[in-house]
Amino acid sequence: MSDEVEIRVPDIGDFTDVPVIEIHVGAGDEVSVEDPLVTLESDKATMDVPAPFGGVVRQLRVSIGDRVSEGSVLLTLELDGAGPSAAGAPPYDEAAAAAPAQAAAPPAAAPSPEGGEHDAQVLVLGSGPGGYTAAFRAADLGLRTVLVERYESLGGVCLNVGCIPSKALLHAARVVAEAEEMASKGITFGKPRFDLAALLAWKQTVVDKLTGGLTGLARQRKVEVVHGVGRFVGPNTLAVGDRTITFDSCIIAAGSQAAMLPDLPDDERVIDSTGALSPADVPKRLLVIGGGIIGLEMATVYDALGSRVTVVELMSQLIPGCDSDLVRPLQQRISERYEAIHLETSVASVKAQKGGLKVELSDGSSSVYDRVLVAVGRVPNGHAIDATAAGVAVDERGFIPVDRQMRTNVPWIYAIGDIVGGPMLAHKASHEGKVAAEVIAGEAGAEFDPRAIPSVAYTDPEVAWMGLTETAARSDGVAYEKAVFPWAASGRALSLGRADGITKLLFEPGSRRLLGAGIVGVGAGELIAETVHALEMGADAEDLALTIHPHPTLSETIGFAAEVAHGSITDLLVRR
Ligand code: FAD
After folding, report:
1. What is the DSSP letter of 387?
2. Of these residues, 24, 342, 551, 566, which one is catalytic?
3. Ligand 1 centre and the CA of 130: distance in Å?
4. Does ligand 1 come within 6 angstroms of the Cβ of 129?
5. Contacts by 184-193 with C-beta closer than 8 Å and gap 24+?
6. CB 109 less than 6 A from any atom of ligand 1
7. Closest atom of ligand 1 to CA, residue 133
8. What's the pLDDT score for residue 55?
C-alpha cells in the first residue's frame, strides 16, 4: 500500500516569502530521500529543499517564481514502501544531518596502510576554491567525502575575504571613476556620496550568495561538512575538536594567510586585506605597504572612496615580476591620482600616536596616516595543521611539496592550492583540486600540467598576463618575438575614453607559436582568457590573426597584435 503526502517547506530559519528559483522534479518522477526537490533563494543564500521520503511525485503545487515560507505545500508524493516515520517533513537542517551515507562506491582511492573501513574515502581539509572543488569532484566521482572547514562559511579566503569581496568593491570603484571620467566628455555627475554601511552590506550579500550556494551544493552531493579546526593526529586520522575522522585519502587545501611585518604596533589602525575589505570608516590618509596585486587593488578601492593613498614598495617597480611595459600605464594613472608612490623604499618604523600612525620610510621621510594596510604577501598554512603527525613533509616556509598528481611524500595524502606554492590564485587551486580528486578516483592521465596560469591585477587599468613574460624570457635566456598593439589605435578603447592600454603577444621565433601574452587596459582580465586558450591549443600568430574578432571590441587588439607579428596589420603602420 502507498500513501500520498504533502511535502511542505521545512524550517528555513528566519526566511519567509522566498522565491522558488528551480524545480528539480516533475509529476511522475521517482525520488529518493534527500534528492533535491526545489531550490529557494533568499537575499542571503540559495537552499535546496530535499525529499524527506522516497516515492513518486504526483502533483507539483508550485511554479518557478512562486513565493513560499515554512509550511507552504510544494508537491504531493506517493510514498514508497518505507513511508515516513512521523507525519510532516523534518526540519531543514535535521534533514541534512540525517542524510544517509552515500552508497559506497568502489574504493578507487589509494589504499590505507591500516586497512579497515575509514570514515571517509576522501577527507578534504579546507573549503577554499581548492578544497570545495576537490570535495565536490571527489563526490561526483562516487567517493564518500568529508569536507573540514574551521569557519562557518565555506569558500575560504577567495569567497569570504579575497577575490569576491574585493571585486565587488572594485566594481564600485570603477563606477565612481567612470562617472568622474565623463566630466571631460560633457556629462557631469555630482560628487559621489558614500553610504559605506550599504556598500559593505551589498558586498556581503554577494559573498553570502556564493558561500550559501556552496553549502547547498555540498548537501546536494552528500558531502559531509564538518566545521572545526582540523589537525592531523596520524597518517590516516584528522582530529576536529573532540571528533577524530579517519580517511583512506586526504587532500590538504588549508590555504594561506596574510603575511605581517615584524615590529608593527598592535593597533587596530594597522590592517591586512581582510580588515581593508570591511572598514569601519574611510581613512583620510591611507598608507599601503606593498605594491603588489592585493595592495594595489585595495588602493584602487580606497582612492575611489576618497582616501588620499600612498603606496610604498620595496622593489623598483609596482607588481614586481610583471613586465614593466604592462605596469607603466597603471603607474602613470595612479601617480596622478595618489598622494605618493615610493619605489625601492621600505618602512623603517610605524609608531601608534593619538592622531594617527607615524610612519618613517627608509628614504628618511616620515608622515602620519589614519590607517596602514600591510599587503606584503601571504604565507602558507603548512605549519598550522600538524602535518608532520601524518608524516607529510612541510618546507621551512610552510609549503607542502607535491608532484604533478598533487601527491605529497605520503602516497595517500595530497595537497593543493596556496599551500603548495606557485601562483597563489584561486583558479590554480581549483584546477589542482580537480586533479587530486581525479587521481584518487583512479582517473587515467589526471595531472596538473597547464601551459599557462593567467594572473590579473584588477586595478584601474587592469593588468593581465599569462605564459612567458619578457622578464622571465630575459632571465632564462628564452628567445622570443614580440608584437604589440597600442590601444591608442583601437576604436573601442578610444570610444571608452581609455586608450591607456597595450596588448602584447610573445611568439616562438620561426614557428610564431604563441608563448605568452600581456595586456594592460580596462577589462584586460576578461581579455586574457582568449590568449590562454590559444596557448593551450598551440595556436600561432596566423591562427590568431585569421580569427575574426567582433568590431569594435577590445578583443580585436589581440587579433591586431597577432597581425603585427604576422605582417598583415592594416590598422597601424609598422615599419619593418
Ligand atoms: P584558501 O582560500 O586559503 O582556503 C583555505 C581554507 O582552509 C580556509 O577556508 C581556511 O579557513 C581553511 N583551513 C585552514 N586551516 C584549517 C584547519 N586547520 N582546519 C579547518 N580548516 C582550515 N585569487 C585570484 O585568483 N583572483 C583574485 O582576484 C584574487 N583576489 C584576492 C584578493 C585578496 C584580498 C586576497 C587575500 C586573495 C586573493 N586571491 C585571488 C587569492 C585567492 O584568494 C587564493 O589563491 C585562494 O583562496 C587559495 O585557495 P585555497 O583553496 O588554496 O585556500
Report:
1. G
2. 551
3. 8
4. yes
5. 184/497, 185/497
6. no
7. 51
8. 86
Q: Is 551 annotated in the active site?
A: yes
| CA-nearest residue, atom 40 of ligand 1 | 163
- The answer, yes or no, to whether any atom of ligand 1 lies below 6 A from the CB of 255, is yes
**Grid cell in block for residue 554:** 577590445
Shortest CA distance to 77 belongs to which of 31, 109, 113?
A: 31
Is 382 within 8 Å of 232 (Cβ atoms)? no
Distance from the alpha carbon of residue 457 to the mean position of ligand 1, in angstroms: 17
pLDDT tens digits, residue range 97-133?
222 222 233 333 444 444 458 999 999 999 999 999 9
Q: Is 127 in the pocket of ligand 1 (CB under 6 A)?
A: yes
Residue in this structure with the C-alpha cell 554601511, named with its chain if needed: 197
User: Which residue puts its alpha carbon closest to atom 53 of ligand 1?
Assistant: 255
Q: Which atom of ligand 1 is nearest to the CA of 130?
A: 51
The confidence score (pLDDT) of residue 575 equals 73
Buried b (16+ CB within 10 A) or exposed e, 506-515: bbbeeebebb
Tell me: the pLDDT tens digits for 519-574?
999 999 999 999 999 999 999 999 999 999 999 999 999 999 999 999 999 999 98
| Cβ–Cβ < 8 Å for 559, 490 | no
Relative to beta strand 18-23, strand 36-41 is: antiparallel
Closest CA to 228 of 126, 298, 355, 315: 126
Which residues pair with residue 342 across a beta bridge? 312
> How many Å is the maximal CA-CA distance in the chain?
88
Q: Lowest mean pLDDT: which of 45-54, 248-257, 279-288, 512-521? A: 45-54
Nearest atom within ligand 1 for CA of residue 126? 7
- Ligand 1 centroid to Cα of residue 148, in Å, is 14
- Return the C-alpha cell found at 247: 580517511
What is the C-alpha separation between 8 and 427, in angstroms, rounded?
39
Residue with the smallest CA separation from ligand 1 atom 32 is 162
Who's near 430: CB < 8 A, 6+ residues apart?
Answer: 129, 130, 133
More confident residue, 432 or 44: 432
Range of weakest confidence among 19-23, 215-219, 510-514: 19-23
Rg (CA), the chain: 27
Q: How far is the C-alpha of 65 from the C-alpha of 20, rounded, in Å?
A: 5
SS3 of residue 181 by DSSP: helix
Rounded Cα distance, 134 and 123, in Å: 10
Please tell me if the CB atom of residue 385 comes closer than 6 angstroms to any atom of ligand 1: yes
Whose cell is 591549443? That residue is: 537
Return phi, psi of residue 223, to 5°.
Answer: -80, 125
Q: In what order do the strands lie in the sheet with 36-41?
A: 46-50, 36-41, 18-23, 67-68
Give the full edge-to-edge strand order of the sheet including 502-507: 455-457, 462-467, 514-521, 502-507, 481-486
Q: How many residues are there in the chain?
A: 576
Does 497 have pLDDT greater than 50? yes
Atom of ligand 1 nearest to the CA of 257: 3
426 CA: nearest ligand 1 atom: 25
Distance 155 CA to ligand 1 centre (A): 8
Q: Is 433 in the pocket of ligand 1 (CB under 6 A)?
A: no
Cα–Cα dist 356/405, whole Å:
50
CA distance 33 to 52: 5
